[in-house]
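Worked Example 4.2. Read the sequence first, then its structure tokens.
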Amino acid sequence: MNFARNDEVIKGRKKDNIEQFIGSSQFFLENGLSQLRYMILIEGLTIPEGYDQCPYRCYVWSILSRTSTFPTKNYVQLLTESENNLSTEILSKIKNDTFRTLMNDQKFHQKVNEEFLIRILSCIGITNKVGYVQGLNVLLAPIAYCCHKSEPQAFAILHTIITYHIPLYITPNLEGVHTGLSLVDTVLKIIDPVLSDYLDSKFLKPEIYAFPSVLTLSACTPPLKSVLKLWDFLFAYGFHMNILFVVAQLIINRSAILESEQPMKILRNFPNLEENEIIKLSLSFIPELPKSLYELIARHGFDKSVPKKLKAYIAETL
């Protein structure tokens, strides 16, 4: 991978530790990637004065997801193919979703217009086996925001995620998402059996309240700046960690849920993300989970054998 930097991007400001690190050659090595992940966990990506977000986040996400730079000429060719070959039905599905993507976030729409989203999702529609599926517009949103200056790279990152990291989320029946919802239920039973039992007593299963959060890797819940920090962590440590993020959001709002006679009013739209608390809580869950269960969490986005193994695990232990 070659991530040549434009000097104008950093003119007038000093590079921070992570930016200096990714500018060196050592991050190509596996131990370099491990160090980058650790730096993200400890230091986080910083926002220099005069910027509204970290200006090199797009590079970090590309590195961590193993996404190579995508030549503009290749992207233009894909656009031409999509214009000629994308079915009217798929294009209609895309446009039905793009206009409402983060519709209440003014900062997002100042940087990303709807045509930007439509073009990228049209290219996904002809390169992805199943075309376009629900939720891809929201999965694209944080990437489009970070890569608003490079449409081809935004396409490349999304394509890498859905092809190599969570391909089972992008199937006609969203099988990876449904497995993820079962995992949320299983993890909650272990981490907080009281809260789990209360939600069960109200007939509230994750399929009802957590579907958008699992489907979109929590990108459906504001604010966007918190989503970006959570996604820094997902890119660094694995997109499967979103399952623990969802459980963490439930724990953070535990008191309000338990005290409510109608908890669905709280769960219908999760309260705003508290990214630092979510990450801290999620990491604290890992030692509490059986290793065999955590393995299933780690593999559920791409391993078709997980649902059967999860069913067996639940039958044996819960």
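Now turn to a second chain, presented in exactly the same format:
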Amino acid sequence: MRILLISGIVFVHVPYDPQTSPYLGANGFIDWIRVFLGDSLFRVGVPCLSAISGYLLFRRGLDAFDYGKTIRSKARTVLLPFLIWNLAFLAFVYIAQGQGVGFGYLPDAINAAPRELATLAFASEAPPINIPLYFLRDLLLCILLAPVLGRLIKRYPLATLAIFFIYAVLPIPNGLFLKKSILFGFSCGIYASLHKIDVRMLDPHAEKISALFLTAAVLLATALYWTGPDFPAVIDILRNLTAIGGIFGSWAISAILVRSRLGMRLSQTEGLSFWIFCAHYPLLVGFWMFWNKAAEPELYPLFYFSTPLLALLILIASHNAAKRMTPRLHAVLTGSRAGRPGSAPKRATQSGVNQKGWPETYSAEEKATR
């Protein structure tokens, strides 16, 4: 799921300015498509990725959860990549702006006050300079709170989730978090792990759930298109609801896609998905700066649809090159998410058949003979 969600997030971060805003409606249906992809459908990525993280963190149960070991592991797999990717981009921007390049496209790093510079570097009060990495910042905060969240969700699951749901959906101040849906998604994943929820129980209804979710995304995009960019409070609440509902909608869609050969291959690309997530925003900003020097605003739809595809091609090629030529550096930059080529996906590809292709009714002896 991660590679699909993160590829969608690339569309969310395609830059535009007031002249090329989709809410002007200058390009009609094309602008509605932009709103559908960037502000509706692919906004599910953050809460869904959070749910996956919470689920995996507690998959061995609360009693087996080792807080110290977890913190040491996440310092290597989440904190270190966050610092490297973000600080490297900040240094690049600082040097470029020192040469008079990049002003107006990125925050002013040269003249930033120490407090603002700390935020750009470490996301202390607002998103970092590599904006999508705010997710890693909030994820680290969830991990630090994991023992408290785990005990609350184990003992008071419905009350805890209800409070976090209200916090995520309603216009309540964010507090410690930059994105409120991350806490709710992470907690949903913990709930599924600790209470032994069969995460495949919705698979038989995947087509219906997917259709319902896509319908909701279409309706939301239409409402956003007609009311944006300054949405009424009720529309903003609906957007939050749709993003949270996307946890289930995206999971249902993955149940359909994983049955295909392409879906099985995509399920084995975890290192690539993290690479794309960390590196796509600087690349998109670079494309945007070049585009503004070379093209007219009327051609922006061409930029919107071509840039994410070009970025993904470049990121796939650079990921493969780094993995082959500098494997140690690649491991650090992807948080040791190497991805094992040829490993089987964990979900069943069809009803009654496990990942090795054996019907679930086969005994151990029968499997051994096959």
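Notes for the reader: The radius of gyration is 21 Å. DSSP finds 16 helices and no strands in the chain.
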